[in-house]
Amino acid sequence: MTPVSPVPREPLLVAGVGNIFLGDDAFGPEVIRALERRPLPPGAHVRDFGIRGMDLAYALLGGCATAVLVDAAPRGHRPGTLSLIETEPPDASVVPEAHGMDPQKVLALATHLGDEPLPRVLVLACEPAVLPSPEEDIAPGLSEAVREAVGRAVDTLHALVPVLLADPAAVPPALGRPMESRHPHAAALPGPGGGAAEDR
After folding, report:
1. Which pLDDT does position 97 carry in this prediction?
2. How far apart are alpha carbons 59 and 5 in whole angstroms?
């Protein structure tokens, strides 16, 4: 029987997701490792979930008010660009998946597993340069652009988490240009509706 993920006691969950053996997909776990050296304030439960979608689904049902998933996600920006995305509740067309770490499918699984409402879920996403499929044979390791984004993601979380701890429904602060990208085309913060913003 698969062990159930421990229930977060804190009001906010910061979850690193991704496969450390698939190039830039390791972004989430690398950010969680970096947070060990720069811990977030009390009230934030920080954990690397890897590709354990079932564990994350149970953690989302653990009573936290807000969850921030840290992940590599192709959104059409320059590699290393950070975006903050507010997810919408999964609709009936999203098939739950227990083995894997597609955020929408994990949210659908959590909805399927529990009767209580899900927490507010934000995704701190990094545009990958190298994101192979699981069928490809590739050595682990982040690309240069994504490795440089790890520190900026930690800065972003240190700015974002205190705001969400004070008010779980707060509009997140806009990501400052130095945090988002050293390139001129940086992702703006989507509004509460979850739509992607245009590059500035």
Report:
1. 56
2. 6
User: Which residue's entry shows tokens 């079932």?
Assistant: 54
Tokens 């009767």, located at residue: 115
Q: Is 46 helix (H, G, I), strand (E, B) or coil?
A: strand
Q: In the prediction, which pLDDT does 137 show?
A: 67
State the Cα–Cα distance between residues 93 and 90, nearest whole angstrom.
8
- The CA angle 176-12-71, to the nearest 5 degrees, is 55
Segment-wise mean pLDDT, segments of 10 residues, the chain, 200 residues: 54 94 93 97 95 87 91 92 85 58 75 78 92 70 95 96 94 62 33 34
108 burial class (0-12, 13-18, 19+ CB within 10 angstroms)? buried
Which distant-in-sequence residues (6+ apart) come within 8 Å of 136 by Cβ?
Answer: 22
pLDDT at res. 90:
65
Q: With contact defined as beta carbons under 8 Å apart, do 60 and 44 qualify?
A: no
DSSP letters spanning 67-130: EEEEEE---SS-TT-EEEEE-----TTSPP-SSS--HHHHHHHHHHH-SSPPPEEEEEEE--S-
